[in-house]
Design brief:
Elements: H1 2-23, E1 26-32, H2 39-58, E2 67-73, H3 78-92, E3 96-98, H4 102-115, E4 119-120, E5 137-138, H5 144-157, E6 166-171, H6 175-178, H7 181-191, E7 194-200, H8 209-216, E8 222-225, H9 229-242, E9 247-250, H10 259-263, E10 271-274, H11 286-293, H12 300-322, H13 327-334, E11 361-368, E12 371-379
Parallel strand pairs: 1-2, 1-3, 3-4, 4-5, 6-7, 6-8, 8-9, 9-10
Antiparallel strand pairs: 10-11, 11-12
Helix pairs in contact: 2-11, 2-12, 3-4, 5-7, 8-9, 12-13
């Protein structure tokens, strides 16, 4: 009996000693579209998140604690995303989530607020930055509306003709595509653009001839594309076949390093709206990415994913410096973050208690000779009336 009791006490002591070590892991959920219509951009974004977690773990972790990144495929399906999130919240007990698409993010808004689990989403829909409506949602890129406004301002500032510039809109009939349209129309009107037409092009489209024919005769000077790279490539190739002359400007998911491979020279001259550096750019944080990727070029989505993990981890570090790390304390810390620099990988990040817009800065790149070439950095005023719109 004495031997059994001694063995039991020894085992209990070992478990007690092991418990703090187990608690050192910080669990972060990953809900990314690794399959489905947005997977072409979801996969590189996820790889950026994963690479950042591995890099941080290899360099001391978060205040000495290792990240356990639990990456799952949402497949552009809100129900699947919600089911995976519930497991993260109830079984895995994650502190925070790295999310992705608009539909899944919208489905999670109420649940992450109820569970007090911050969600760093890669949906940059403006309404998801309004902390009154989405208190536990954070993003590290200017929202879609801000991206479009920045481009419109750049075009208007550089417009030389006496007539009003003509604008057309092409976007998918989906939450992601619809989100910035009211803001684009309102700001275009304010700046003096003439809206000459708008058409829907599905994310899975294999032809856009009908929609482009409806716009071609209206001679738009600028045409907004609010899709992802595969649908953008379809639009651009069909526009070239039709001889349509317009400057395409494309949201953050629609014109990246892969677009030239998909659209060829039909992509030449298009303007890509981005919120991160391109691979190899001379910024301090690129050293970590080059090291982690062994100098193998990656897409700008990868870099933005890497930066999203960096910003989340900075919030965790600051939280742990003050006390325990929970979803609630992480949110509170993030809302005090001011001008945090992800080593130049993105513009500086600030979150306010009622306003989770990270900044109002957008990078404009022009596709020249098959490459993303820096065109301009636009920073707009953080207007209260633009919050959530």
């Amino acid at each position: 009996m004495r031997t059994v009791m001694k063995t039991f006490l020894t085992l209990a002591l070992c478990l007690a000693l092991a418990a703090p070590a187990l608690a050192e892991t910080i669990k972060i959920g990953g809900l990314i579209d690794l399959s489905g219509p947005t997977s072409a951009v979801g996969r590189p974004y996820a790889e950026g998140l994963r690479a950042a977690a591995e890099y941080i773990n290899a360099h001391g972790g978060v205040a000495g604690r290792q990240i356990e990144f639990l990456l799952q495929d949402t497949a552009y399906n809100p129900q699947q995303g919600l089911a995976l999130y519930k497991k993260f919240a109830t079984v895995d007990k994650v502190v925070a989530v790295q999310g992705f698409g608009t539909a899944v993010t919208e489905a999670l808004v109420r649940f992450v607020a109820q569970d007090e689990i911050p969600n760093f989403s890669a949906s940059y829909s403006a309404h998801l930055t309004d902390a009154a409506k989405a208190p536990y949602n954070f993003v590290i890129a200017a929202d879609y509306s801000t991206q479009a406004r920045a481009a419109l301002k750049y075009f208007k500032d550089n417009w030389k003709e006496s007539r009003a510039p003509r604008l057309a809109l092409l976007y998918p009939n989906a939450p992601y595509g619809l989100a910035p349209i009211p803001a684009i129309k309102a700001y275009a009107k304010e700046l003096g653009f003439e809206l000459v037409g708008e058409e829907n092009v599905d994310l899975k489209a294999i032809d856009a001839t009908t929609q482009l024919l409806a716009l071609k005769g209206k001679n738009p000077d600028y045409t907004w594309i609010g899709g992802t790279t595969p649908s953008t490539a379809v639009i651009m190739k069909d526009a070239k076949k039709l001889g349509m002359k317009t400057t395409f400007f494309v949201d953050i998911w629609g014109a990246d390093e892969s677009l030239v491979q998909l659209a060829g020279d039909a992509a030449e001259g298009a303007v890509s709206l981005q919120a991160a550096a391109v691979y190899g750019q001379d910024v301090p944080g690129m050293k970590a990415i080059l090291e982690q990727t062994k100098n193998q070029p990656q897409m700008t989505h990868f870099i933005r994913g890497f930066a999203s993990m960096m910003v989340m981890v900075e919030g965790m570090r600051q939280t742990l410096a003050k006390g325990p790390l929970t979803g609630k304390t992480l949110k509170e810390t993030l809302e005090t973050l001011r001008d945090y620099d992800p080593q130049g990988l993105t513009p500086k990040i600030s979150f306010l208690p009622g306003d989770h817009r990270p900044n109002m800065s957008v990078f404009l790149y022009k596709i020249q000779n098959g490459k993303l070439t820096f065109l301009s950095a636009q920073t707009l005023e953080r207007k209260a009336e633009w919050l959530g719109l």
